[in-house]
């Protein structure tokens, strides 16, 4: 294991080890019997083999769970969990957003042909010539024009407007300004200085309500490439959320809100802005319950799931619960932009209750036969959950895609730790900063596969030339029971680790692929929990034992001992029993 030390102030981290061996109308809109075929999934989804529950759970397990075929949520592809109530975005504009709604160095200016096509599509939509899926949504208009404005106001020359974009805008803006709503005109030209066509709409725009007035004021700063204070961001978020898409007159313009969210991400949020997003709705449902457990790890997986590789966290939580390391998972059923496999989909498929309140989750954490729980953002943070549909239409991830991973829906009487996945370099330190702000004893960020938490046993590619490799970890741990927000720096150590599974006796293997198949992810995980050795088993062991060690958990000082403890939890059948207990008891908890 390659370790780079960053002590606070100057501590040595032990790195020499032995090289041994988680009800309501928001559930999936499709509910079928257990047998299904790809014809139910729509024409855009590749044909998949049909599954039955017996291809995932054997008869004994089905009996143990007390399931009938109607208890199992299908279909088995993650893309099919998208709610049918969400209108789909216009694909032409969405493709352009993928290029321009991003950072100062990642943005790719549009070519002339694409720019003309996009603006022609927006014009025809604004004139009412496009319907349904072809219509360009308010959220798309807000995000696209915010990106164009920020690029011209604040981005370096290489990612400002291309000559083709300028020619297209010169052609279409005199037509667009006649048909676009005033909020979009404001976003596109807030000071009346960008488009070359004099207009007083942008400079004089104030919004249509008190909430919009605050949002418009903040947005002017964002569109200029500027940043906001902690109280200003929190004030905006609390004013405008939850989003009421059915009655915009009672809330705010989706165009303005989309512009605000994507604009903050494009400007690269400051620490104080991220703190505001992270903490804004902590008291939305009152103070969090406190579980009577000695140790609790909060798992912050990316909410938009995995689309390619095995997602291990649900099974890792079952393993770690066997030896007293309680785990709280959280997320959603489906989230853009990836729309991949999530813990909620897997638990739904297996018949578990995924509508638990934080208080109900507390009881499951304390249950000696369970020891882990899942809480949906839908139940714990309804204001943030109300943005799910809008997030699909802004294309790129907004600030809360980072901060929703650092949440404490339940607290503990004992030690607490937070672990979060990341993909883009530069977000590891902000995530750790948020964890320290939460006051937990230990924090860990992992660059797992797909930016999720799963470390791999695959050999590192020799072709990686920049950025952190997969299996890179960074974190901190307190050396006493005092929480991170109370220490003076002397009692905490920080570390950076590149985990090479081969160093601990794991054979290098290719990563198990699931390719959006919820049932396959479950089948792989359950087979491993039954003791079937192979790549999936190894990944669960690696991720359980290594997290125990890096977080400084009791009994995990030696990595080989921590890994053997995880193996014993699986081989003894305890981990599988814990998962089955969770599915049964979650349906009975009141």
Could you walk me through the main structural features you see in this protein, from its secondary elements to its overall organization?
The protein has 590 residues and is of the alpha/beta class. The protein has two domains: 91-268, no CATH class; 290-587, Pyrimidine Nucleoside Phosphorylase, Chain A, domain 2 (3-Layer(aba) Sandwich). The protein contains 23 helices and ten strands. An eight-stranded mixed β-sheet has the order 1-10-9-8-7-3-4-5, sandwiched between helices. Strand 3, helix 12 (313-321) and strand 4 (326-331) form a beta-alpha-beta unit. Helix 3 runs parallel beside helix 5 (163-179), helix 9 runs parallel beside helix 11 and helix 12 crosses helix 21 (535-550). The radius of gyration is 24 Å and the shape is elongated.
Which helices and strands occur, and which strands form pairs?
Elements (H helix, E strand, L loop, with lengths): L1 E4 L53 H7 L25 H10 L11 H15 L11 H17 L8 H17 L2 H7 L12 H4 L5 H14 L6 H11 L13 H13 L4 H9 L10 E2 L3 E6 L12 H9 L4 E6 L11 H7 L8 H9 L5 E5 H4 L1 H4 L2 H7 L5 H4 L7 E2 L2 E7 L6 H11 L3 E6 L24 E7 L13 E7 L19 H12 L5 H16 L8 H13 L2 H13 L4
Helix pairs in contact: 2-4, 3-5, 4-6, 4-10, 8-9, 8-10, 9-11, 10-17, 11-19, 12-21, 12-23, 20-21, 21-22
How does the major sheet shape up?
A: 8 strands, mixed
Going by CATH, the homologous superfamily of the largest domain would be: Nucleoside phosphorylase/phosphoribosyltransferase catalytic domain
- Beta fraction: 5-15%
Distance between the termini: 45 Å
Output the CATH topology of the largest domain.
Answer: Pyrimidine Nucleoside Phosphorylase, Chain A, domain 2
Helical stretch count?
A: 23
Q: Fraction of residues in helices?
A: 25-40%
Summed up, the domain count is: 2
The strand order across the widest sheet is 1-10-9-8-7-3-4-5
General form: elongated
Radius of gyration: 24 Å
Low-pLDDT runs of 5+ residues are: 2-53, 69-73, 484-490
- The count of β-strands is 10
The first-level CATH class of the largest domain is given as Alpha Beta
Structural class: alpha/beta
